[in-house]
Write a structure and sequence with these properties.
With 416 residues, the chain is of the alpha/beta class. The protein is built from 15 helices and 16 strands. Helix 5 runs antiparallel to helix 6 and helix 13 packs across helix 14. The chain starts with a helix and ends in a 17-residue tail after the last strand.
């Protein structure tokens, strides 16, 4: 009987855990100088503003939303994987499947924006896809991995591969601009999630070793095909951002949930965000990105999974409202971070409630994010700023603690 009474006494009179956490939080709040973030290379006013936010919003059911590419990391996880797949011919598609995949969802007879050949003629997706289909048939027949006799070094020296690489890059950029289809994601069709995750990890490991550099490639002058000669571009060089890893950790330690909302493939980003060896240590269930349906063999198809809003442009704001906010009493996020027009919509939707963190990639004046960026720069010294702007060294892929007087954009490619 005594032990029962003790149980009820403890249930009735001991303070609940929420009360204890709030008490601890209030005690911390009394000390505005308490260390929350490591110094790193945050611009000092940004560090102070983020620490102020954390003090004010801790342990109250709040959450923060981050873009992934060029925000949580330096460079683009999806593009890194796409280039790795091309250069190493990592495809699980026969020629017929490949031909269908690179055309799926892309109007074949419409002119692709900003896509011309070296003669100045505007190109369609159909012209590029016809050439790519022929090149892939050759690669599939002759590459050792697909059952042929040529090793990787030999086959990547052929005119067929040279043409294939350049036109894949050109089609990817053009299709994304025309209709939002990212063939960089589509070409993982035919893989299981396990296969995609393993390939992604290999590509990330390589990307972290690669020199940060922008490359230009030209298609074959011998095998011109329907599209003629074209020139494409790509980058290499992934980098983790220790300041962002620390910010994620500080938010979670203070009861603020961290989510990723990315236009890249969800399962691709999850590898980088959740594998402990990369240092971000997020729960995979907190990573949201673009999804595709699986077939009866648990392999990826080209069909979009509409179980959540497509996490691209306007879809990012919609995903926050429909997926994340309901997990937090329909509250708005307290912090939103991003770098480009793809993130503008979620920033604009919650700019009155959330602190906005923008990574300055020197957008053009006509960019949607430009007014927000300028507002952040104007209120740089305001301790209650609603928008803060952080700069990077684009040659090293790291934060810098002082904004440059004039920042040049990293050899710009069209945003997906």
């Amino acid at each position: 009987m005594l032990s029962k009474n003790r149980y009820f006494y403890r249930r009735l009179f001991l303070p609940p855990i929420d009360f204890i956490l709030q008490f601890i939080h209030n005690a911390i709040m009394l000390n505005d100088d308490a260390l929350i973030l490591k110094t790193g290379n945050w611009e000092p006013q940004n560090k102070k503003r983020l620490e102020k936010l954390i003090r004010e919003k801790a342990f109250n059911g709040n959450y923060a939303v981050f873009d992934w590419d060029f925000t949580s990391i330096f460079y683009d996880t999806q593009d890194n994987l796409f280039v790795y797949q091309i250069e190493n011919l990592c495809f699980n598609l026969n020629p017929e499947e490949f031909n269908q995949t690179i055309r799926a969802g892309i109007p074949q007879d419409e002119i692709l924006p900003h896509t011309i050949n070296l003669e100045g003629r505007a190109l369609t997706a159909g012209e590029l896809s016809d050439d790519l289909n022929e090149r892939y048939e050759f690669l599939y027949k002759n590459y050792l991995h697909f059952g042929g006799k040529m090793g990787l070094a030999e086959i990547t020296s052929t005119e067929e591969f040279i043409d294939f690489k350049a036109k894949m890059l050109v089609l990817m950029r053009g299709a994304a601009s025309l209709c939002g289809v990212d063939i960089g994601q589509s070409v993982s069709t035919g893989m299981t999630i396990e296969e995609l995750s393993a390939l992604t990890e290999t590509a990330i490991d390589q990307g972290l070793k690669d020199e940060i550099k922008t490359y230009r490639v030209r298609s074959s002058s011998v095998l011109k095909g329907r599209a003629g000669e074209v020139e494409g571009g790509y980058r290499k060089g992934l980098r983790v951002q220790e300041e962002m890893q620390d910010l994620f950790s500080a938010l979670r330690k203070n009861g603020i949930e961290v989510y990723i909302c990315s236009a890249s493939q969800e399962d691709n980003v999850r590898v980088f965000a959740s594998n402990p060896k990369y240092g971000y240590k997020l729960e995979s269930k907190n990573v949201f990105g673009r999804r595709r349906l699986l077939d009866e063999n648990k392999k990826l198809t080209v069909i979009d999974d509409s179980s959540i809003p497509a996490t691209r442009k306007e879809g990012k704001a919609e995903a926050i409202k429909k997926v994340l906010a309901p997990k937090h009493q329909n509250k708005a996020p307290v912090l939103i971070a991003g770098d480009g027009d793809g993130d503008f919509y979620m920033m604009d939707a919650f700019k009155d409630e959330a602190l906005i963190l923008i990574f300055n990639r020197s957008p053009k004046k006509e960019a949607k994010i430009y007014p927000l960026l300028m507002s952040g720069i104007k209120e740089r010294e305001n301790p209650n700023a609603r928008i803060i702007v952080q700069h990077r060294n684009n040659q090293k892929g790291c934060f810098i603690s002082k904004a440059p007087e004039e920042e040049k954009p990293l050899d710009s490619l069209p945003e997906k």
